[in-house]
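Margin note: ligand = magnesium ion.
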Amino acid sequence: MKQYRGLPASGGTALAAAVVARMAQGGPHPETLEEAAEQCRAQVRALHDKALAEVGAESAEIFSAYEALLSDPYLLEPIRELHGQGVPLSQAVEQSLEQQAAVFLRAKSPYLRERAEDLRSIKQMLLRRLGGSALELTMPRGDGPVIVAAESLSPADTMALDKKRLAGFVTRTGGTTSHVVILAKNLGIPAVTGLAELEEIPDGAPLLLDGDTGLVTVEPDETVLAWAEERRREQEAFEAALRELPPEETLTRDGRRVHVSVNVGGAQDLEGLELAALDGVGLYRTEFLFVERARAPGVREQEEEYAKVFDALEGKELVVRTLDIGGDKEVPYLALPKEDNPFLGCRGIRLCLRREELMREQFEALMRASRGRDFSVMFPMVNTVKEFLHARCVWEEIRDGLSAQGISVSGNIKLGVMVETPAAMICADALAGHVDFASIGTNDLTQYILAADRGNPDTGVEQSVYAPAVVRAVCHIIRTFAAGGVKVSVCGEAGSDPRFLPLMLGMGLRHVSVSRSMVDRVRYATAHTNCAEAERLLERVLGMEDEADIRRALGADGREG
Ligand code: PEP
Ligand code: MG
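Resulting structure:
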């Protein structure tokens, strides 16, 4: 038995035979850049459809972005120029795309740094086409599960694998937030990246992959196998307990109703989702419709997209978040000025109030798409009552305009705010006097309370909701809105942390919205929480000064499973 440690990239464990992927050279290949680019475009179009059918919208988006890049003259022109100067085509692709990727790699914004990864994936696809090479792996006979071990895997490679047999993967390169990792998470399989000793894995050897710790065990011995077996049994018990949960609602152990909703980026994220136990959608991130495209979507296009979400929900609740873009997300057609601190810059409601046409078009599209149905709208990054009132005023103007044209708009649309800045937290009592509801964006709230960029792993400050300041902030918000009789929910990642959720239930939280892969865990954690006990635990935690003590009190210090 041998054990190696890589980076934990996608959680869970898998025990299966290793399949080592290698590059095979010398197949038929195109002669020109245009031909290679066209073949790559056809490949990513097919992968987009496959990802949409097999994994979901978030993964499919990756391939739409690749198609847009492969059609972008600014990407291909420099390659042509270099080749025109006598540089061999493959070398020109390598040089030019590396140069372009290097520009993105220097960016402060994590979003832009991810573009470097896209460019490298495209470089790899073009080079493979031009060299006639392909990733080759020999699957063992039968239909048993396999763990793929590869130097690197692009999203295209991963999509092409047989999902039914893929139990996990391990690579030498790739970070923990790359697109291929997102894909693994969406597929619900473990992944370990950054494994320096990749060549120590023999083809066909039994492999135990622990995506939670990054531990890779080659030919595990009896003790490790027994541990893996125990984990498997725990997992089975968890799944059995889920089947026992009441199918139509979620109750705490002491019988309090907790409303669970799902976060989506579009109608595709609702495909195949069992809605019975859910209130509906608690956060619809509408910005995916606006990024990575050449022009803003018009009212008609937006209306069509929003209508798909309304239809998919079959009357269940829908909370739409209006456009949350800004300096850190590249939206070329908006020509946003470069900012040194995009997370402290003109984003969310600030941008929409400045560029009112964006907001007006989105409001109109939402109202048209609703066809008289009820729904809720919330504004991101709100700091002040004034911002909320301004947005509400625009909303009412558009609504009255449409009603005057005979377009049916419900008179019962709720307007609320995301609470994700310290300003909104401190003025929660004032906001509670005006809004219909509030939803806590714990992801942004954490970075702003701690004054540490959520995309920068090197600030020296961990993005942790367990930090005493964040715990107190979240508690203050929940209690203030609840005291004002205003519905308050959590739609940031903290809502799906099974150790943190009970604490928030103790604060009085009764509405939570999480990504679809976390719905079951959240329902399970809720069903195992006693609110009276959680309230007592909260009082102890609020007296703690050190994050380590809070983590220990909540069993989130890594010592329990
Ligand atoms: C949040 O900030 O917690 C949130 C839900 O919004 P986003 O992650 O999209 O910024
Ligand atoms: Mg946010």
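The chain has three domains: 2-21+137-221, 33-135, 254-554.
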